[in-house]
Amino acid sequence: VERRVVEEKGLESAVVKSKPMPLPRSRKRILVTGGAGFVGSHLVDRLLERGDSVVVVDSFFTGRRENVAHHFGDPRFELIRHDVVEPLMLEVDQIYHLACPASPVFYKYNPVKTIKTSVMGTLNMLGLAKRVKARFLVTSTSEVYGDPEQHPQTEEYWGHVNPIGERSCYDEGKRTAEALTMDYHRGSGVDVRIARIFNTYGPRMLIDDGRVVSNFVAQALRKEPMTVYGDGKQTRSFQYVSDLVAGLMALMDGEHIGPFNLGNPGEFTMLELAEVVREVIDPAAQIAYRENTADDPHQRKPDISKAKALLKWEPKVPLREGLPLMVEDFKARLKTPKQLGAS
Ligand code: NAD
Ligand code: UDP
Ligand code: UDP
């Protein structure tokens, strides 16, 4: 093996050394569903950068071709317009299954479609993983904990979800996706990974996506008041997208199934978030209070001890460092009139 590696690499000088050379990591063919979306497109960047081939499957419901357009023409990149609710035949080594709207505004827009995406979409991708013996990673969510009665949330917590509420299309859809994933693992031996993602922000979020960080940033840049829902005392923990992508890749390439919380434990009330946005964009930015939405979780903060211990992963980018990076991207896109609205 040592000789072959040395010959392949053409490093004659290494032959004299007695230490075996590490085998080169084999290049993989990787499917990323939802790869034209916010998180998916950043993941695709990193996978291509390290030398793998990537197939993106996306329906463009909340994703945009622009997010991956910089890879057009790369022979290791392929983009397929496809709805994961329909079966799909491909040959791949790994599947990162992200396809699903993530913003409450979009997942509530057609709740039945959201459930179909989580349930039938995940079933199809698990069927595909089973057939081609690919490793399968599902992006679940902190929403499986609902309005949590345990704080911070550990992976052992079973959650406090309203099964018939307006958010349940997303929450229960993802809980079913997790259940299906474990059933394919136990029943069919599919090699699986489960990530529970906490609120993530960064460049390429849709400007009118409806999530709180993108709303506040767009509003402050447009000199509109930041809309705080309810009394603004509810909390969230905000993770910068590069940290999430590193966590997803560590999970996929590691030996542990999970579930793993992937999030930044830094916890902020919505009023504190508005204060940070003021610091970064405009100290004069105003706040306008709006009625809160139904079943809004009061507090959310990940316990990431498990990911730290087993994946050797933890987030590196605090909110005050990540937010300016997102603001630059939003500023540039707000200058382009056609991208003012959600596309
Ligand atoms: P996003 O809306 O930007 O990306 C989702 C992508 O999936 C989009 O490109 C969309 O077009 C695509 N999609 C939706 N339905 C589809 C379907 N039926 N078939 C094919 N493609 C479809 O959202 P995101 O923030 O990038 O989230 C990615 C994943 O991470 C989602 O599964 C989401 O539930 C999960 N997640 C995200 C967060 C977060 O804060 N960003 C938090 C928890 C979980
Ligand atoms: N499936 C798919 N691509 C594949 C293999 C399966 O989309 O390469 C779909 C298939 O159409 C089915 C689902 O995945 O709806 C579950 O497949 P599985 O083989 O587990 O179950 P079955 O087809 O026996 O119901
Ligand atoms: N929120 C807000 N103003 C907005 C959008 C959201 O105050 O313009 C609040 C919302 O009520 C929730 C928190 O921000 O408490 C996070 O909402 P988001 O939709 O970003 O994500 P969620 O964690 O609820 O899925």
UniProtKB/TrEMBL annotation:
<feature type="domain" description="NAD(P)-binding">
    <location>
        <begin position="31"/>
        <end position="324"/>
    </location>
</feature>
<dbReference type="GO" id="GO:0042732">
    <property type="term" value="P:D-xylose metabolic process"/>
</dbReference>
<dbReference type="GO" id="GO:0048040">
    <property type="term" value="F:UDP-glucuronate decarboxylase activity"/>
</dbReference>
<keyword id="KW-0210">Decarboxylase</keyword>
<keyword id="KW-0333">Golgi apparatus</keyword>
<dbReference type="GO" id="GO:0032580">
    <property type="term" value="C:Golgi cisterna membrane"/>
</dbReference>
<keyword id="KW-0735">Signal-anchor</keyword>
<comment type="function">
    <text>Catalyzes the NAD-dependent decarboxylation of UDP-glucuronic acid to UDP-xylose. Necessary for the biosynthesis of the core tetrasaccharide in glycosaminoglycan biosynthesis.</text>
</comment>
<dbReference type="GO" id="GO:0070403">
    <property type="term" value="F:NAD+ binding"/>
</dbReference>
<dbReference type="GO" id="GO:0033320">
    <property type="term" value="P:UDP-D-xylose biosynthetic process"/>
</dbReference>
<dbReference type="GO" id="GO:0005737">
    <property type="term" value="C:cytoplasm"/>
</dbReference>
<keyword id="KW-0456">Lyase</keyword>
<keyword id="KW-0520">NAD</keyword>
<comment type="pathway">
    <text>Nucleotide-sugar biosynthesis; UDP-alpha-D-xylose biosynthesis; UDP-alpha-D-xylose from UDP-alpha-D-glucuronate: step 1/1.</text>
</comment>
<comment type="similarity">
    <text>Belongs to the NAD(P)-dependent epimerase/dehydratase family. UDP-glucuronic acid decarboxylase subfamily.</text>
</comment>
<keyword id="KW-0812">Transmembrane</keyword>
<protein>
    <recommendedName>
        <fullName>UDP-glucuronate decarboxylase</fullName>
        <ecNumber>4.1.1.35</ecNumber>
    </recommendedName>
</protein>
<keyword id="KW-1133">Transmembrane helix</keyword>
<keyword id="KW-0472">Membrane</keyword>
